[in-house]
Specification:
With about 650 residues, this protein is mainly alpha-helical. It has helices at about 5-30, 45-55, 60, 65-95, 105-135, 145-170, 180-190, 190-195, 200-225, 230-235, 270-275, 280-285, 290, 300-310, 315-320, 335-340, 345-350, 355-370, 375-385, 410-415, 425-430, 430-445, 460-465, 470-485, 495-505, 520-530, 560-570, 605-610, 625-635, 645-655; strands spanning about 415-420, 450, 490-495, 515-520, 545, 620, 645. It is built from 30 helices and seven strands. The structure holds iron/sulfur cluster (2 copies).
């Protein structure tokens, strides 16, 4: 079909396109290599298998947004089919009537699949066009020219394929086949004059159009956000398989730089994340900071880091130390402090990007290298350092909440079955003390053998760590590990998911491994074993459950509190629109409890509104900090008709 000159032109164009794409690929790869190495190659076979399944089945893309996800998957699966079609397309240019797949069943199946996916892909292109440019869904409200270009490329590829096949039918020896059903339709729609005579020129022109668009697409992908087609699968391979949003332990003795002052301090995985982002906006859709009108948009944060990396590429070679600081220069201070570390963005990201690691890196460098943090943190850090609690209340008064409850101290007992880790809120905050008291009374009612540390307990270190003050975190964590190591107990029980997460998942990296359970697990166990029994559900006002981020998303405990509450509420447990994995933070996490929200709506007010929309009169949670946020939100918004309870309080009220 192609003349000799055209064949030469094709080879030259293919070599040029391949060269341009490869050069850009190598440039980006080198940029990723400036990052610090991370060890994400353990169990490579398992990683590979998992990534392959996720990519081929498009599971992360379909989860959360099934409609968009399936349309995206049609494009992906269609492109796999078109890999074969394109190879054949090239071969046909050089040898008409030749087929890499023969002319039998295999070819018919390929042709059928290509027609099917061409139709689905055209539908998908229209769907994405309407979503981005006509409906303009909120999270995609910055429609980019890149997306439009890619949609045009894809549409041209599909239409040129269909009409190429249709015009081929005008040539001698190229009969119509049922497998080519879309091309048959296109052929039937050709003007009579065109369909009646051989149309070699049209066939040739469409061959070239299809091939040139593929070449241009290949080069364009390397320069645009569509690089996620290549970077995304690699990112899935290097996923974090350890503790959720793990913060690496800083070696305070040996390190001179803390966190990520500059882009070169990010890890290679962090940099790969930037090129994996598909700018789908799912993270913004669920981010409490973004949704409440604050400066932080997790999608924009990654984009800012990527643009900075690309712009500073020349300087990275000549003067790497001179590139901008990330905190305050590339990403605004406000954005960095807006994050509640709730993990919602990471839960929904189809590329498994790790936003929190980048935010925490910037916080650590701001706090530990520049002493820059919200002014409210002065009180927090001083309180933690001097009295071992965020409020700076006398450390000796920590067990005062339990004075009238005959709660034994572990120092007096020596050993115990349950060590009740009360936590700072449970010890000092008036609302949270009620949770501690309820839990104690339930344990006493059930005849549990338990004790508390009393004044020997200090802050677990979570507020310091999430605020970027790793030094203080390590000091408190090591002190607690030392204290715990002195005693014998079967397990630690706590009502605070922050303490639970830190003690269970973060202390082991500092040498302290202890069995820790959340109070929801103990309460469920007591109910199941019959050690506590509940009055029959009264059928009073329905309850809704708010998932604490550090219990649900960080530790996967979504069901146990619900199973308990279903018993309490007689099955009436209406869910908030954002619940379970995509639950909405109360605003307290990541240091949010200790600082003012200076822009947008208060996150806790948004969450209270979501709870009210269920029609439930009570919002139950399983975290003293969530409890504080709901109490404050009810008082601030004047919705006194709403009640908030912790799981322990709800159970105590229903004890038989
Ligand atoms: S970070 Fe993930 S969820 Fe957010 S826009 Fe990028 S790909 Fe989408
Ligand atoms: S962790 Fe939560 S608050 Fe922070 S960026 Fe992600 S979704 Fe937003």
């Amino acid at each position: 079909m192609l003349s000799t000159m055209e064949k030469v032109l094709f080879v030259a164009a293919a070599a040029l396109a391949f060269g341009l794409a490869l050069a850009e690929f190598i440039r980006k790869l080198r940029l990723i290599q400036i990052g610090r190495k991370t060890d994400r190659c353990d169990r490579p076979g398992q990683r590979l298998a998992r990534a392959a399944v996720q990519v081929l089945l498009q599971l992360p893309v379909i989860a959360q947004r099934p409609v968009s996800g399936f349309f995206h998957a049609f494009i992906f699966w269609g492109f796999l089919v078109f890999l074969g079609v394109t190879l054949n397309h090239v071969a046909e240019g050089f040898a008409p009537q030749f087929s890499l797949f023969g002319h039998g069943t295999l070819y018919s199946v390929l042709l059928f699949a290509a027609n099917l996916f061409a139709g689905l892909i055209i539908l998908a292109v229209f769907y994405f066009f309407v979503r981005r440019y006509i409906v303009r869904v909120k999270s995609l409200e910055r429609p980019s020219w890149q997306s439009l270009t890619v949609l045009c490329f894809i549409l041209i590829l599909m239409v040129s394929f269909i009409y190429y096949e249709a015009f081929k039918m005008t040539l001698p020896g190229m009969p119509a086949t049922p497998a080519n059903f879309l091309a048959n339709l296109a052929f039937a729609g050709l003007p009579a004059g065109l369909a009646a005579a051989p149309q070699a020129a049209w066939v040739q022109a469409l061959w070239w159009l299809h091939i040139l668009v593929i070449m241009a697409f290949g080069v364009f992908i390397m320069h645009s956000k569509h690089l996620h087609l290549l970077a995304g699968p690699v990112n899935l391979f290097f996923r974090n398989t350890g503790v959720k949003a793990e913060i690496p332990v800083v070696d305070l003795e040996a390190q001179e730089r803390f966190g990520t002052p500059q882009v070169t301090d990010l890890t290679r995985k962090d940099l790969l994340d930037l090129f994996s982002c598909a700018e789908c906006g799912r993270c913004d859709d669920v981010c409490p900071a973004f949704q409440s009108g604050k400066a932080l948009s997790p999608r924009t944060l990654l984009d800012k880091l990527k643009q900075h990396l690309l712009e500073s590429a020349p300087q990275l070679r000549s003067d790497p130390d001179g590139v901008k600081k990330l905190f305050g220069e590339v990403v605004s201070e406000e954005e960095v402090w807006d994050c509640t570390t709730c993990g919602a963005c990471m839960e929904v990201c189809p590329m498994l990007n790790e936003h929190i690691a980048k935010i925490m890196g910037m916080r650590q460098s701001a706090v530990m290298m520049e002493s820059r943090f919200p002014e409210e943190f002065q009180i927090l850090f001083r309180g933690l350092e001097n009295q071992g609690n965020p409020w700076g209340i006398n450390a000796d008064s920590r067990p005062d909440w339990a004075k009238d409850l005959q709660v034994p101290l572990l120092a007096e007992k020596g050993e115990t079955d349950i060590l009740f880790w009360v936590g700072c809120a449970g010890s000092y905050d008036q609302h949270s003390q009620k949770i501690s008291r309820s839990l104690v009374r339930i344990m006493q009612h059930a005849g549990c053998n338990f004790a508390i540390l009393g004044a020997e307990e200090t802050c677990c270190g979570d507020p310091a760590r999430r605020s970027g003050m790793e030094y203080l975190f390590q000091m408190q964590a090591r002190q607690t590990i030392e204290t715990l190591a002195r005693y014998r107990f079967r397990r630690i029980v706590t009502a605070c998911p922050h303490g639970y997460h830190v003690l269970k998942n973060e202390y082991p990296k500092l040498g302290g491994t202890f069995p820790v359970v959340h109070h929801s697990e103990l309460l469920h166990e007591l109910l199941e074993s019959g050690r506590i029994q509940l009055k029959p559900a009264s059928g009073s006002a329905a309850m809704t459950y708010h998932d604490p981020c550090y219990l649900g998303r960080y530790n996967g405990n979504y069901d146990i509190p619900r199973r308990i509450l279903e018993r309490l509420a007689g099955g009436r447990l209406p869910e908030m629109a954002a619940s379970g994995k995509t639950s909405f933070c109360c605003g307290a996490g990541g240091g949010g409890m200790w600082k003012e929200e200076k822009s947008g709506r208060r996150i806790s007010h948004c969450r209270l509104e979501q709870a009210r929309e269920t029609g439930a009169g009570t919002v139950v949670t399983a975290c003293p900090f969530c409890s504080i946020m709901f109490h404050d939100a009810i008082a601030e918004t004047g919705h006194e008709e709403m009640k908030t309870l912790d799981l322990a309080q709800a159970i105590e009220a229903a004890l038989a």
